[in-house]
Amino acid sequence: MAEGESCNASAVERKEDFEIIDRTLIPNITELKETGWSAPIFSLAKKASENLAVSYGNALKSAALAGLVPKPVSNDNTAKTTVKCHTMEERSNLMNMMKLSIKVLIQSALSLGRTLDSDFPPLQQFFVVMEHCLKHGLKAKKSFIGQNKSFFGPLELVEKLCPEASDIATSVKNLPELKTAVGRGRAWLYLALMQKKLADYLKVLLDHKPLLSEFYEPDALMMEEEGAVIVGLLVGLNVLDANLCLKGEDLDSQVGVIDFSLYLKDIQNSDDSKQDAGITAVLDQKHYVEELNRHLSPNLVHPKAIYDKTMQLIYGLCQNSNWCFKLAAATDRIGSLQEEQQQLKHQNELIRERSEKSVEELEKELELQIGMKTEMEIAMKLLEKDTHEKQDTLVALRQQLEEVKAINLQMFHKSQNSESSLQQKKETISSFEGKTNQMMSTMKQMEESSILEKELKSEKEQRQTLQRELHQEKDTTSLLKTELQQMEGLKKELRKLQDEKQQLEKVCEEQEQALQEMGQHLSQSKLKMEDIKEVNKALKGHTWLKDDEATHCKQCEKEFSISRRKVVVVSG
């Protein structure tokens, strides 16, 4: 309509003449509907957005030339303003996403009976959006492993500020399945939602913003007005009953991605050829309506001029009595012209109403398409952030895998060395057993020979005196004592060898058990790496001792093995 009015104004100023169009050429409302007035709008919205961008750029150029737009002062100021605008857009986007998620959650829950489970998709998406809101502007804690962002830190303040939240904190700490701060924060949100006090706890946090400034940046969502708006929206969730089971849930996983399919309406797009045909039909109809308006506007002025001329003629005819019959004809002509003028006005109003309705429909559809475009841009930005975070986690996991491989190689070399030492000890044991068998056979031969000598001497020396027998007996006793001493030494050596053999067998069994345990530990590498991180944190300022110097643990007083690492605390 704006284009039609501008065309009318230009036509009046230039005093251009137009032909009167016949009524039969003007289409009816039914004809306009049959020709496809409601065609696809996607390409129309795209063209309209391009036209708006061009017009906006031209307006900015003209304003800059006129001195209305301020010129940039410096690059630092522009960078700061862009960062502020970016954070403001992030806060508004997160607040709008929270509105949508809460609205969809309440509507879907009311349709299902107001009871929610952990597998309910709108509830899962609500927790994902809530986690993104709590992570916005969160300060990173630096450690020797890297930077760590966790929203569980500010949630722990609720226990100090509100004693009613102590039950949630204790139950979260007592859960054995949670091993990261992210998992504890998610469990805290689950329990607070089940208690219907999530909004109250977050309101307590917002009332103590000086404490929150230790965890959040000044322009974070929780530090601005959007945080209070989100807390007000969370009050509506007290209508719902949530039955969430924390056992078996993988709460230590990465941050989820927002699923926009729950919030976007499905659009059934036809083929490109049909779209182009419909769009051209709509544009042709629009141009036709504007052309009709432009043609009809001067026709409204033309009957007025004719009316003035006829009145002048009537005045002249009244002076002359001979022209009375012409006066009657002129009056009839004036009546017919007035009727045609009223009909043209009515038709013009109908055409204007149709064009206004069509323009309003196009504007509404254009606004919908612009909203969808902004939502898709937000989704793309969030997806880019998620991909960057996942790439960082992949790099960290690759480094951890390389460290695990190095540890596995060290353990493999140690196992090979232990096997070689076992083989050497087995060979020494077999040699000692052969020597003991030889000694036993020699002992038996010596005993037999001594008995035979005694018998021979007794037969030969029966006639000798008792003194010789005594001397011989003393000699034999001394020999036997020496032999007994040798036997006792050999028995002691045998016992030592047997004890060593038992110890070696125990070491072999322990090493086999250690190898089995190492296989199980290697299969659970993910869990062990987190334990190693905690041990590394606790081992600052400690040193490793040699395996020969440390035999028992100083805390639990248990004997060390290959699976138990040996650490001693050095004071100072």
Automatic annotation (TrEMBL):
Key words of the record: Coiled coil
Lineage top rank: taxon: Eukaryota
Coiled coil: 327-400, 449-521
Pfam families recorded: RUN
InterPro entries: RUFY1-3 (IPR047335), Run_dom (IPR004012), Run_dom_sf (IPR037213), RUN_RUFY1 (IPR047330)
Keyword Coiled coil tagged: yes
Coiled coil found in the keyword field: yes
Domain RUN: 117-249
Entry-linked SMART domains: RUN
Protein name (database record): RUN and FYVE domain-containing protein 1
